[in-house]
Design brief:
The chain has 13 helices and seven strands. It is α+β, with helices and mostly antiparallel strands. It has a seven-stranded mixed β-sheet with strand order 2-1-6-5-4-3-7.
Length: about 325
């Protein structure tokens, strides 16, 4: 859960990328390549998150994996020539990062299921895509990894067999077989009981979340600043990262200047969180969330998803009664 997560944010993205590109050609070529890559990363980030969230079973873990993918891509770009088929290249990095993540989490499933090279996707299998669209993140986690990634890439993201083969570095018959098995499993799971209920939140954590929400909604930002640990870390996902009480304290001033938020305690993928709704729609769905990590009674880390609305597409949010 969140206390064990790394807070990843590459605020040096542009400067790192510029340094990598300037070493391979003139300023004009570097500027053009930099603009192209920035545009590609920005355009693919929501799509990468849809893939990563379903591979990991969590919208929050999915964002961690997106950031890890982008950092790995930057490292790979340093000292390398132009990338062929950059979109497939990025998804291949994301897929490999997901496999590493699952191994680390000890939830890695067997990759070497028997493939039937002659298996084809019959026309009726296309109807199974509706099960894919409706499936929750927990349902995807019940599929073996090869089946999971193939179904996500085709039925969720719309890639072709050839594109999936390039991403997975697999043969077309193997991709077809994985799709056939994955769709069949999803069809069966659609009729199975729902995922287990989310864990109950402990009373101490519930009270801390409620206190934070009450202070935030009352604009008692001085009171919240008093709750910050000296070395508190803040991540505005996709925007910035700040460290230390003084730097993070300025973040609350930005919230004081706008009035489009109201905080309530809740759970996101089973993780304690602050759900943020528009005050004009208190019963409406949250449009983003904030995660807190505590060190005793002090706030050690804040992770704010205000500028990453794409995460909400995959997140399971539950308000606390």
């Amino acid at each position: 859960m969140f206390p064990g997560r790394r807070i990843l944010c590459p605020p040096q993205f542009v400067s790192m990328e510029r340094r990598a590109l300037l070493g391979h050609g003139g300023m004009a070529e570097a500027a053009t390549a930099q603009a192209d890559i920035e545009q590609l990363f920005g355009a693919l980030r929501p799509k990468l998150h849809r893939f990563c969230a379903r591979m990991t079973g969590s919208a929050i873990d999915g964002e961690d994996l997106v950031q890890e993918t982008l950092l790995k891509a930057l490292e790979a770009l340093n000292g390398e020539a132009a990338v062929q088929h950059p979109e497939a290249w990025l998804f291949r990095i994301a897929r490999n990062a997901a496999l590493d993540f699952l191994r680390r989490r000890n939830r890695f499933e067997a990759l070497h299921a028997a493939h039937d090279p002659d298996q084809v996707i019959d026309a009726a299998a296309r109807a199974d895509s509706r099960h894919t669209v409706a499936a929750g993140l927990g349902t995807f986690m019940r599929l073996p990894v090869i089946e999971r990634s193939s179904v996500i890439l085709m039925d969720v993201l719309g890639y072709s067999l050839n594109e999936i083969g390039e991403i997975a570095q697999s043969t077309i018959p193997a991709v077809k077989a994985a799709l056939h098995r994955g769709r069949a499993r999803l069809r069966a799971l659609a009729a199975a009981p729902d995922d287990p209920p989310l864990p109950r939140l402990g009373e101490a954590e519930r009270l801390r979340l409620a206190d934070y929400a009450d202070r935030f909604n009352a604009h008692d930002f001085d009171g919240i600043r008093d709750m910050l640990a000296a070395d508190v870390a803040l991540e505005l996902v996709g925007r910035a990262r700040l460290n230390g009480r003084n730097a993070v304290g300025r973040y609350f001033g930005n919230y004081a200047a706008v009035a489009d938020w109201h905080f309530t305690p809740g759970l996101v993928d089973g993780t304690p969180a602050l759900l943020v709704r528009h005050p004009a729609e208190p019963a409406g769905p949250p449009f983003y969330f904030v995660l807190l990590r505590w060190d005793g009674d002090a706030i050690a880390a804040i992770r704010d998803f205000r500028h990453a609305p794409y995460v909400m597409e995959s997140a399971t949010c539950m308000p606390l009664a």
